[in-house]
Predict the 3D structure of the following.
Amino acid sequence: MDIEQLMPHVEALIFASERPLTQMEITETLGQALETAVESDRIATCIDAIREKYDVDYYPFQLKEIGGGFQFLTKKAFHKTVLQLNGDKHIKKLSTAAMETLSIIAYKQPITKSDIEYIRGVSADYSIQKLLDKELIVIAGRNEDMAGKPLIYATSKSFMDYLGINSPSQLPQLKDITDVQLVTPTNAEEAAPRDTPGIALLPEHTILKKAS
């Protein structure tokens, strides 16, 4: 099967998937579906061609490599339009305390709760639990070198998906961000649970669709 014939199959597979697909997954899945051996480099060629196809201004979405795989995402110019349809589906509302905690984890990961609390100056129990509930962070193991072997936390694949990055190393470097404000301790009252809405964390890229 030549590239022109293979490319629509790759495109359909990525479009139908509700999560980013790796090149290996695409290769293996199409090999089973087409009942023939599919070379990985031919899939790579198809992916490059699909990406080039949708990079033009005519299309409101594009093929992006995020979370270690490939997925169709709406372009930034259309985020507000898509959010009118999906509402809170793509919004993670965070309190100031949770946002501070997430920022610390993102730039210091892997990190323990005690280290987070040392930086913030207040308890991080509630913020960490909220971030775990929203699947923005994960428990990445334990620090075997510390007394009690405390849990260590890191950002999740969902966090990277929302920002449209593949790894924490692609986060903006603090020295390159203008008007940087250092995280300062939050007072205990602000860190406590409350019912008022917090900060809305919007994704860098909005998911175009999910398979039903």
